[in-house]
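Appendix B, example 12.
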Amino acid sequence: MRVNRNTVGIALKVPTATYRIQLNQNFPFSSLKAIVPYLSKLGISHIYASPIFQAETGSLHGYNITDPATINLELGGRAGFEDLVQELKAYGLSWLQDIVPNHASYTPQNKRLCDVLAKGTNSAYACFFDIDWNHPSEELSGKLLLPILAKPIQQCLKSGQIKLIHNSGFKIVSGSFEFPLNDTSQQHLELAGPVQQVLNKYNHNPKFLATLLSQQHYHLAYWRTAFRCINYRRFFDINSLIGIRMENPSAFLEWHHLLFEFVRSLRIDGLRVDHIDGLYEPETYFKELRARCPDAYIIAEKILTDDESLPKTWPIEGTTGYDFLNYVNKLFVQTTNEPAFNTLYQDFTGNIQNFDDLLYQAKKTVIETSFFGDAQNLARLFTGALCESTHPKPPDQRTIAAVVELLACFPIYRTYIDASNNSGDSAFRIAFELAELKNPQLADSFQALSHLINERQTSPDALFALKRFQQFTGAVMAKGFEDTVLYRYVRLLSLNEVGSNPTQFGISPDQFHAFNRLRQQNWPLTLNTTSTHDVKRGEDVRARLNVLSEIPNEFQANIEQWQKILASKKSQITCTPVPDSNETYYLYQTLLGAYPWTDIEQQEFNNRIVQHMIKALREAKVHSCWIDPNLPYEEAVVTFVLSLLSNTDFMDAFLSFQRKIANYGLFNTLAQTLLKSVCPGVPDFYWGAELWDLTLVDPDNRRPINFTLRQRLLSEVATLNPQKTATLLATPSNGKVKLYTIYKALQFRKSQPMLFEKGAYLPIAIKGTQARHVVAFCRRNTDDYALVVVPRFPASLPYRRAGKSKVHNAKHPTSGNVVDWADTYLSLPEAAPSRWFDLFTEKKLSSTCGRLPLSDVLDAFPIALLYGDKHG
């Protein structure tokens, strides 16, 4: 870590590497303090912490904040945080804080919200939360929807699930929630007689209680109501998280008051802004944040798709790194095998729908089941804006349908249109064209809505409607793409990731180099990540599954063999085998990618797979879903999973292929780990992923981490004789080879900060028989060079026994076998040094006429990080 100046001319601490920590009651500040020495030794400069402000009781993630002015007591409170900060300072570590400006907890634990429930529009916080107090519904006019009931309100009243209680005043209670009454009701009840008599009167007469509820500033309702009619903005479709109006200056200042205190006092050195796309004006928010945190390292959780770029006008350092994750991942997918993989997938599953159609259908599903009330609200805003223009007002139902279609056809997470910014016009144009192509009968409505884009410069109502629309496109994309279609279209699961395009079957080294050059030019301090708490599967699961792209025929032969073995194990529901072929195909890939290195974890793994498959079924929303779980179907799938994992014939056949995939996947893991550490940007490590990250989607990836083991292994690799690095490959199951890679790369990065922060990115040409199997580049800063060399497509490389020249057929990248690189070599730039030092093996190499043979560079270790000094 070093102090530098960023593009807006302010001093900030540039991270060497960040390490994401998931804080909760099971891993509080005291637990983090205990591993500070370990993280420092590993080479981490910044602790990248999940939210630390007071959240709902028992929260395992911290994103449901109840009080931003209090440090979470379950983590150790203010005292625990201060104690941790002192330990961090003693080791020279900094703090990167995940903050949540978009939403807050919608529970009685949120005292600001309770004030709104008690006082309505007279509350000081009435405009703090994102509430539409003028909703046209008679039930919601001047009230806040409170959709927390397990059943329709009349059933709850009749069954006594809603009661009046007296606890420091009269309150309404339903389940574990207590809600305040307004002052008028409170005073009336206090004067109505003895407390118990009043309670009996109301609790024994549902009509009296219903009348009392109708007089409140909130409308108590069945939880499903919010899907069809709602007057507050949620985080995605989660009723218990309410949006905050960050565009309101008083809300901005109050929500960040304690945070700004910690930034000024250097307790917090950097900020990671969660769900920036939910805010009304993201750029304005960042400018306000930068004005009050001029020395902070700031990044945004922003999902960029395909070639989309981060707005250059945002005064921040970059994103959380999903763009890097997807580029580096696709580097290891063999593009030439896409036709074979398409055939394999279609033959096995019968799935012939193209991805774009599936995505459209998935987005329509989530809009119609979870966001229809929001879509109606947007249609109302558009209708109001159109009424004030000279353009004819479209029929209301047609406008709603047009808004739904526009949301479903929107090509990216969101745009940032305002009165003067035209950068999002192309996305709207694409959306309108596709929506009209699919729905020609709505052409007039689309034309009317399109008209508003041009009206935004002169019509405040048009601009407001467009900005509100922009706040919802990201939620629809996240739920439709990430949480639905990625569980329906499962051709190659390693491509099914946040921000990825599953139809792009790999990229070329040239595309990877072009991406990194732009990154160094525009966002040199952005994060490079390969795993986060939001990914669909851990980085090493993807690394393994990418091997399948090299051997589609072998993969097909194996899964067809497994099908025959398990043909009698599937249950029948309405004469249909369960799970279906697409779900079975998904399961096979999941097992191949996540299966543990050793049998010690078998029972735990079985339980994890069961839970994961239930979640996958519900996310796909084909045979089950979260809103209406199909329990008989889920139970049939669970039965199949457990029978499969206990079937000896299947497991023998499966493990024979899986171990091969795991061993080749090791190459991909080491390669992507090194690339993350040295490519333009700042490497980010998700907790525990310094060893094998064979986790699945949350909550699987939030399980406890064995840091005692990691501390011991780090001590071992830190003292390892570099000449014995090859021995790490002989026992890959312990993960030391990955830990060693990270440790060595970060130590070098820490010793050469300017080389990686400012160093140019120079692609290196590879010549020879195996050229397509190598990616190489240099980082150069004045006379200092770092040369990076990694392999790709290990399953189709020739291997030989170490120390022997003859190529043999046992393609196994460990256990004494090495790649036969034959005549393949690196063609170095003319100005490059001729003498190099390998950071992993401490071997010295020399180039001849600008050539470095791969047989020298990668003879002792499968990846290389070489340091060269022209004057050294």
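Residues 2-9 have pLDDT under 50 and may be disordered. The longest helix spans residues 648-678.
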